[in-house]
Design goal:
Elements lengths: L1 H10 L2 H4 L2 H25 L10
Length: 54
């Protein structure tokens, strides 16, 4: 997902998209991707998903 957003942002004019809101949006995507990775990792290890609290 993050790579898709990077490619999309590169295609559009950087002057339009370089705002604080976009920066916040990108950071949120990165954070969520990290949480989903941890969530998947613990699932594969056979642990209950209920132990993960964000």
């Amino acid at each position: 997902m993050h790579q898709v957003m990077k490619r999309f942002a590169v295609c559009i004019s950087t002057d339009f998209f370089e705002t604080e809101l976009l920066t916040f949006f990108k950071q949120s995507i990165d954070r969520l991707a990290g949480y989903f990775f941890v969530f998947w990792y613990f699932n594969k290890r056979g642990l209950k998903t209920g132990i993960l609290t964000f």
